[in-house]
Amino acid sequence: MSIDIDTARKVAKLARIRVEEDQLPALATELSGILGFMEQLNEVDVEGVEPMTSVTPMRLRRRADQVTDGNIQSRILKNAPDTREGFFAVPKVVE
């Protein structure tokens, strides 16, 4: 796919990049090269290839999914300027 100067100008405008008129042909050539590389990648057969998260196969460490309250309510509320009945107290903002 080839990018012309008008398309390069439009892409620069959409990307909010100021490109001088004399640099538009170089930008069009560069964008055409990028699209060419993308077309090459589309030719690669990836059928049956598993996605990778790393170059070395490894399993992520997992912890047991257990719900806890942390038992630190008193430590958290100690930093609050005002508490009532075990909760943060805030000023009323609506009437």
From TrEMBL:
Record's keyword annotation contains Protein biosynthesis: yes
GO molecular function, one term: ATP binding
InterPro entries found in the cross-reference section: Asp/Glu-ADT_sf_sub_c, GatC
Keyword Nucleotide-binding annotated: yes
The reaction(s) this protein catalyses: L-aspartyl-tRNA(Asn) + L-glutamine + ATP + H2O = L-asparaginyl-tRNA(Asn) + L-glutamate + ADP + phosphate + 2 H(+); L-glutamyl-tRNA(Gln) + L-glutamine + ATP + H2O = L-glutaminyl-tRNA(Gln) + L-glutamate + ADP + phosphate + H(+)
Top-tier EC class: ligase
The entry's keywords: ATP-binding, Ligase, Nucleotide-binding, Protein biosynthesis
Cross-referenced Gene3D superfamilies: Glu-tRNAGln amidotransferase C subunit, N-terminal domain
Xref: NCBIfam families: gatC (TIGR00135)
Subunit description: Heterotrimer of A, B and C subunits.
Stated family: Belongs to the GatC family.
Database matches in HAMAP family: GatC (MF_00122)
Protein name: Aspartyl/glutamyl-tRNA(Asn/Gln) amidotransferase subunit C
Species in which this protein is naturally found: Szabonella alba
